[in-house]
Amino acid sequence: MRKILAAGAAMSVMVLAGAAIAQPKVDPVQVDPSRPDWENPAVNARGKLPAVATHFPFESRALALAGDMARSARYLTLDGQWAFHFSPSSDDVPAGFEKSDYDASSWKDIKVPAMWQAEGYDQARYNNITYPFPANRPLIPHATNPVGSYRRTFEVPAGWSGQDVILHVGAAGAAYRVWVNGQEVGYYEDSKLPAEFDVTKHVRPGQNLIAIQVHRWADGSYLEDQDFWRVSGIERSVYLKAIPQARASDLFVKAGLDKAYRDGTLSTELSLTARKAPLTARMTLLDGDREVLKTEAKVAPGAARVVSLTAAVPGVKPWTAETPNLYTLLVELIDAQGAVIQATPQRIGFRTVEIKDGRVMVNGRPIVIRGVNRHEHDPETFHVISEESMRRDIELMKRANINAVRTSHYPNDERFYALADEYGLYVMDEANIESHAYMDYGNKVPALREQMQLGFDPAWEAAHRDRVLNMVERDKNHPSVIFWSLGNEAGIGPNFEKAAAAARKRDPSRLISYLGWGTLDWEHQPNAYVDIYAPMYDDIEKMVDWAKDPTRTQPMIQCEYAHMQGNGGGNFKDYWDTIYAYDKLQGGFIWDWVDQSMYRYAKDGRRYWGDGGEYGKNPGGDIEFGDGMIQPDRTPNPHFYEVRKVLSPIQFGAFDPATGKVTITNRHDFRDLSGFDFEWVLEGDGVEIASGALPPLATRARGVETVALPLPAIATRPGVEYFVTVRARAKAGAVPLTPAGYVVGWEQFSVSATPKAAVSRPGPVTLADGKDAVVLEAAGAKLTIDRATGLVSSYAKDGTVLAKGGAPNFFRAETDNDTLNGTVAQQKPWRVMTDARQLRGLAARKVDGGTAQVVVEYALGAGAASFTTTYAMAGDGSVAVSGELVPLKDDLPPPVRVGLWFTLPAQPKTVEWLGRGPHETYVDRFTSAPIGLWRGALADQNHDYMRPQDTGNKLDVRWMELGSGGAGLRVEADKPLMMQALAFPYTDLYRRPAGTWKSSDIVPHGDGTLIIDAAQWGVGGDTTWNHVGQPHGKYRTKLEPTRVSFRLSPFAGEGTTPDKARPARATEVE
Fold first, then answer.
1. Per the record, where are the segments of Basic and acidic residues compositional bias (predicted)?
2. What's the pLDDT at 518?
3. Which of 71, 184, 370, 637 has the fewest C-beta atoms lying within 10 Å of its C-beta?
4. What secondary structure does DSSP assign to 71-93, as a single string?
5. DSSP assignment, residue 694?
């Protein structure tokens, strides 16, 4: 994730280590054999076998087709409990712990896989940009470099005799050494990729000892400066496998399409070890249980070699993210007697990816990337991710109409790619390379760029190349992977060019992406050695400039855009209106998928979202971890629904109320609309009047069709608004992991509206103008206004106080965007005017028609503005309220909001409203919320953001009722307004110093909140950390006279329409 440090004129001003100010350094000697491997960039591995594709060598065809290696006699898991010793310093590790006679009886147990910080050891740190240690590459401070030492025993199965035994370590780091029975077998550094070691010569019959020593930091950590939790340990599975000595150690499956994109082309390269006897290599392609083809080749005895099996596959079903058609490829090695030596299954998909006519093409058609960046994160285990969690992520992505994932910023667990293949996601597979801090300094001091950025340093060339190539080797058989990414925010330089060339040589069938933000803003341009232009956070203006510039030939797919931090996600629709307008713009990857907070528990047992400072002093602060579309427990954030709506591949538009005609646009790239059912619902003020289904549609991919909705004639009623909503629901199996009936796309259109009829409100109103207060009474309602403050002391019905306050309000609780993009500083005058206003006058009088009126005038900011509030009580006890802000100086910034702030001492239990819902909405984030009649608990109207901030705003509200089964309060707007009803004081949401309050502090208590606004800024959505993150101009208020008007009235019972309102909580299926 891109964030910007303040530029400095000298090296001494750069922040690189923790919270301290430190000068970035480059040790004059990068490669020194006398140093330990973990401080030597020339050593990335020892004893490690060459990287290979994810696969397992089963002993039979039946087991291979079942695909569960745990059922194989060739598999032995080492997951589970290990003996563990934690050393806070690399100079103080247990000597000889790898030996069998070492006494580890005092050691504690730890589970594998696990991050040891999740098990109670060491400090978890959340860093962005800064290294968590003083930066002086390649050196690591020994005294503060923790080390975890692991031991466990295992028994080699008797049936493994005569086979090679391979140890597989799924991922650990930053660096680790491995011993078996006291003998060192290898070393590796890359905390996100597997390493395999041949331990055949080290194991013995009976009991064996394995020992692993993990260093928290290593020279490789200079390439792992990502924006995430810095934790350590063995984070993916560890196991042993027994494999024949004569075997296929790797397979490279190339499943493509011919030039007509109709028939399949299949090539499988088998890397065979040396053989003493002849073998047969057989390749069988299965479509489910049906055998599509079989081909084989005889292999003579001899040295290691690569054998290729090829075949044409007529009439193949291609793989795309929309149509994830998979075949099973079974590769077998068979001895001279016909016995299976090795059976290896591989799920494959036939597809091509290329740049053609300046656009990314899959299977010959241009695609649009509706993508998201995904960190691997779990709120209990940090980076250890279960398959259930991965599947849940993909399920939610499918429901959000996301079709692509960037594995930010490292290769993910291999199981994720298999799921992406199965359920249909395009993947940008990213190498575990980010050296953000050195990149930043090289950018800000251009004269030192080549000295600072690791991409220019020859000593680090092998590390860059190996991390890219090892990723390519592991994931080369996955159809979901269509891009290789060289890394993230690591600058530029020849090391990246060479890594790109090596990747392209090994796998020319995929595209390569990398921006790296290695160029300054005025050098904003693509790298020549990649295939697409993948900038970060280009605003809409830059996107249009790129699209219109004929000299820019690469398609643009933003690797990061739409920064979703906190209460953000604004103007998302604007991005996509722009993307759809230009062929050269092919989408992007939202930042990002999941909030990276952890479960923490208050003293009273309440759970809250822990931030970067929860585990000790930490530069990550209390904001940067909450950038996700979903929360760590996979609960959607409100902007999830906005993304789901905007990214829908089925769009509706151009509705004609007179004819009922509506256009349906199929934005799928490959599939028609036959997998969806279409329906319409006609409502008047949120209450259903009629509904129906449309005939089946089969609109082609990227096609447009016009249909007529058979709307009935209706007798309109004064003041009632009529809307029709059209929905597309998925048929069973149409969208993986979503149920039949799931709404994939919808739109709401206005049919008609008639003016409200005048309402007669007869009855006597009394006015008592006293020394301390003015009191208006009618029909059992009583309004008391304090003469000292001009505020409502109480608005009551039959003695029950319904509301208090009515303070002019121009400030909102700071969102994350407001805090970091300059809005808070800009709005300081308005906060002062909200908190400190001067009462200039209060006048009460009877008005013709039987009403009584009180006018309150305030001076704001020493003559900067004025605000006038008028209360007029009618004979039915209702009160017409009007407030008007008049700016008196033109050098003020526009206020972030204009409205009136009431408190709710009666603490209503329920809230019902006619307006947008069910989730919160803002002027730049509302397209996902239809106008309807909604009802829910007041306690549910705030969202549990990682850090408390403004929440619960409701847009286009016609009326709102707050009640508790007895007396209640109704607010009716003269025109649609914004309303915010919360079950706690609004000031609870105000920002406080980091660590002084938590999400669990936001609970129902005290007086509730009701804020009614005429205008309010949007939440912003481009970035968070600079002024670009402020809402676009059209989503800000103006410095001009602004009026808010509405009517307060009591009601009795459960409200106006309790049986007809929909639940005011969004469901994932609706």
1. 1057-1070
2. 53
3. 71
4. GSTTEEE--EEEEEEEESSTTS-
5. P
136-137/25-26 β-pairing: parallel
Question: Residue 256: is it exposed, middle or buried by C-beta count within 10 angstroms (0-12/13-18/19+)?
Answer: buried
**What gap in Å lies between CA 437 and CA 17, rounded to an integer?**
9
Q: What is the pLDDT of residue 995?
A: 74
Task: Retrieve residue 800's tokens.
Answer: 């029950």
Instruction: Supply 231's token pair.
Output: 């934790």
Contact at 8 Å (CB) between 624 and 128? yes
Give me the mean pLDDT over the 155-178 stretch.
Answer: 97
The residues assigned a catalytic role are 489, 560
Q: Is the peptide bond before 1063 cis (omega within 30 degrees of 0)?
A: no
Q: What is the residue-averaged pLDDT of the chain?
A: 93
Q: Which CA distances in Å does 735 have to 321, 388, 924?
A: 10, 19, 29
Residue 849, CA distances (Å) to 376, 429, 714, 758, 973 in order: 67, 72, 36, 14, 21
Spatial strand order in the sheet of 183-189: 45-46, 183-189, 175-180, 206-215, 147-156, 80-87, 108-112
List pLDDT tens digits, range 124-141.
999 888 899 999 999 999
Is residue 643 predicted with pLDDT exceeding 50?
Answer: yes
Q: Look-up: residue for tokens 């009632």?
A: 720
State the pLDDT confidence band at 618, using cuts at 50, 70 and 90: confident
Residue indicated by tokens 């032995």: 76
pLDDT at 731: 98
Cα 180–Cα 185–Cα 191 angle in degrees, nearest 5: 105
**The dihedral sign for the CA sequence 6, 12, 18, 19:** negative
Beta carbons of 425 and 403 less than 8 angstroms apart: yes
pLDDT digits (tens, 9 = 90+) for 650-671: 999 999 999 999 999 999 999 9
Work out the end-to-end distance of the chain between its first and last CA atoms, rounded to an integer number of angstroms. 32
How far apart (Å, rounded) are the C-alpha atoms in residues 306 and 1030?
A: 57
Task: With residue 419 as reference, give the H or E element that holds it.
Answer: helix 414-423
Looking at residue 127, its pLDDT comes to: 87
Residue 787 has pLDDT above 50, yes or no: yes
C-alpha to C-alpha distances, 556 to 156, 166, 545, 582, 588, nearest whole angstrom? 53, 43, 11, 10, 8
Encoded tokens for 954? 């409701």
Q: What angle do CA 940, 945, 950 make, to 5 degrees?
A: 80
Residue 16: pLDDT over 70: no
**Residue 468 DSSP label:** H
C-alpha dihedral sign at 14, 17, 19, 23: negative
Transcribe 631-648 into DSSP letters.
-TTSPBPHHHHHHHHHT-
pLDDT > 90: percent of the chain: 86
Domains delineated in the chain: 31-243 (2.60.120.260), 248-352 (2.60.40.10), 354-600+626-645 (3.20.20.80), 650-753 (2.60.40.10), 773-1063 (2.70.98.10)
By mean pLDDT, which of 332-346, 348-362, 564-578, 605-619 is the weakest?
605-619
Tokens of 1051: 């009601």
Structural tokens at position 302: 């001899």
- Pick from 11-20, 114-123, 686-695, 753-762: least confident: 11-20
DSSP secondary structure string, 424-467?
A: T-EEEEE-S-B-HHHHHHHHHSGGGHHHH-GGG-GGGHHHHHHH
Rounded Cα gap, residues 319 and 480, in angstroms: 8
Are 809 and 1011 contacting, i.e. CB atoms less than 8 angstroms apart? yes
Bin 80: left if φ > 0, else alpha if -120 < ψ < 50, else beta: left
Under 8 Å between Cβ of 905 and 1007: yes
Using omega within 30 degrees of 0 as the cis cutoff, is the peptide bond preceding 592 cis? Answer: yes
Q: What are phi and psi of 166, to 5 degrees?
A: -115, 130
